[in-house]
C-alpha cells in the first residue's frame, strides 16, 4: 500500500461526532445530551459534527430545543446535516431557519469537512445524487485531512436486520469520495456504532447519543476523531462513562488496526478507559 503524506497543519486535531439525538421522542433522554455537551466543552474539540436525526418529527418546537443544546457548545465550528426524521413534516424548512444550510463546508487548521443532506422528505431512505458529485469533488481539492458527513449509512451495518435504508447511490458516491482522497466518512441513522475500512477510506457509523431506542446491547455513545502527526485515532465515548479506542490508522504508512468489543464484554470487565 502506498504511503501518504500527513495532511494536518497542526500537531493535533480533535473532532467530535454525534448523531441521532431524536429530540421530541419518548426515548429521548435530555440528561444524556446535557452530559455530552459538558464533556465536549471540557474536551474542547476543534469541530463538532452532528449527522442528522436531531429531531424526531421535524417539528418547530423540536428544532428550538435542539438549538438550545447546540448553542451551549463552546466550539465555534459546528457542522450539522439533516436526517430523515429532520425532514419529516417539511421539517427541512425549520432546519434551515435554526441550523443554517443543509449542505455545509468547513475548513480549518488543515482539515476540510463537507456535510451533505442525504434525506428525502417523508422517506426513510436517502440519496446524494449525481448532480452534486462535482460540487463535492471541488470542495476537497486542497491536500489536507478530508471528512465527508451525511446522515444515511454508506455500507450495511451489522446487527440491524434486512438492509433497507443504505444511500441509494452509495456505490457512485463511494467512488467519488475515494477518487478525491477523502480520509473519513461520518454517518449515523441505524443507532448502531460501527467502523469499516475501504481502501484508504474509514467509514464511521455513530450510535445514538441521547436516545434509548437501542438495538441489543448497544449503549448511547458518540465518536472522537483525533488526528496527530499523520496518525488517526478514533474513540467511542459513552456519556457518563469512559472511552475506548476502536481504530488506529497511519496516514503516512497506510497501516490500520481495529478493535471491536461488544458492550457486555466491556462492562463485565470494567475496562473502559
Number of domains: 1
Rg for CA atoms: 17 Å
The CATH superfamily is Metallo-dependent phosphatases
H-E string: EHEHEHEEEEHEHEEEEEEEH
Number of helices: 6
Q: Give a short account of the largest sheet.
A: 7 strands, mixed
CATH structural class: Alpha Beta
Shape assignment: globular
* Tally of strands: 15
Helix-strand makeup class: alpha/beta
Helical content class: 10-25%
In short:
The protein is of the alpha/beta class and 273 residues long. It contains six helices and 15 strands. The strands form three sheets. It has a seven-stranded mixed sheet, with no helix packed on it. The chain has a six-stranded mixed sheet with strand order 4-5-8-9-11-10, with no helix packed on it.
Descriptive account of the structure:
With 273 residues, the chain is of the alpha/beta class. It has one domain (12-269): 4-Layer Sandwich (Purple Acid Phosphatase, chain A, domain 2), CATH 3.60.21. Helices cover 21% and strands 28% of the residues. The chain is built from 6 helices and 15 strands. It has helices at residues 30-43, 60-71, 92-99, 133-139, 170-179, 263-269; strands at residues 12-18, 47-51, 78-81, 104-108, 111-115, 119-120, 123-126, 145-149, 184-187, 194-198, 201-205, 222-228, 231-237, 243-250, 256-258. The strands form 3 sheets. Strands 3-2-1-12-13-14-15 form a 7-stranded mixed β-sheet, with no helix packed on it. A 6-stranded mixed β-sheet has the order 4-5-8-9-11-10, with no helix packed on it. α2 runs parallel beside α3 (92-99). It is globular and about 45 Å long.
Amino acid at each position: 500500500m502506498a504511503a501518504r503524506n500527513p495532511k494536518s497543519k497542526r500537531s493535533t486535531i480533535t473532532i467530535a461526532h454525534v448523531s441521532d439525538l431524536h429530540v421530541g421522542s419518548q426515548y429521548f433522554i435530555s440528561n444524556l445530551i446535557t452530559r455530552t455537551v459538558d464533556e465536549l466543552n471540557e474536551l474542547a474539540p476543534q469541530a463538532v459534527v452532528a449527522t442528522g436525526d436531531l429531531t424526531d418529527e421535524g417539528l418547530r418546537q423540536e428544532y428550538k430545543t435542539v438549538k438550545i443544546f447546540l448553542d451551549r457548545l463552546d466550539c465555534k465550528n459546528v457542522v450539522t446535516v439533516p436526517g430523515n426524521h429532520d425532514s419529516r413534516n417539511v421539517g427541512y424548512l425549520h432546519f434551515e431557519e435554526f441550523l443554517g444550510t443543509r449542505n455545509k463546508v468547513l475548513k480549518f487548521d488543515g482539515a476540510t469537512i463537507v456535510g451533505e443532506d442525504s434525506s428525502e422528505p417523508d422517506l426513510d431512505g436517502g440519496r446524494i445524487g449525481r448532480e452534486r458529485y462535482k460540487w463535492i469533488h471541488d470542495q476537497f481539492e486542497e491536500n489536507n485531512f478530508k471528512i465527508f458527513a451525511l446522515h444515511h449509512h454508506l455500507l450495511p451495518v451489522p446487527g440491524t436486520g434486512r438492509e433497507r435504508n443504505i444511500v441509494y447511490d452509495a456505490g457512485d458516491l463511494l467512488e467519488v469520495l475515494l477518487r478525491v482522497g477523502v480520509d473519513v466518512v461520518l454517518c449515523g441513522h441505524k443507532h448502531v456504532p460501527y467502523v469499516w475500512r475501504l481502501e484508504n477510506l474509514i467509514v464511521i457509523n455513530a450510535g445514538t447519543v441521547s436516545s434509548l431506542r437501542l438495538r441489543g446491547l448497544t449503549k448511547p455513545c458518540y465518536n472522537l476523531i483525533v488526528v496527530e502527526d499523520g496518525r488517526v485515532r478514533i474513540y467511542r465515548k459513552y456519556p457518563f462513562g469512559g472511552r475506548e479506542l476502536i481504530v488506529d490508522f497511519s496516514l503516512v504508512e497506510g497501516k490500520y488496526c481495529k478493535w471491536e468489543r461488544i458492550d457486555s464484554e466491556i462492562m463485565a470487565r470494567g475496562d473502559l478507559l
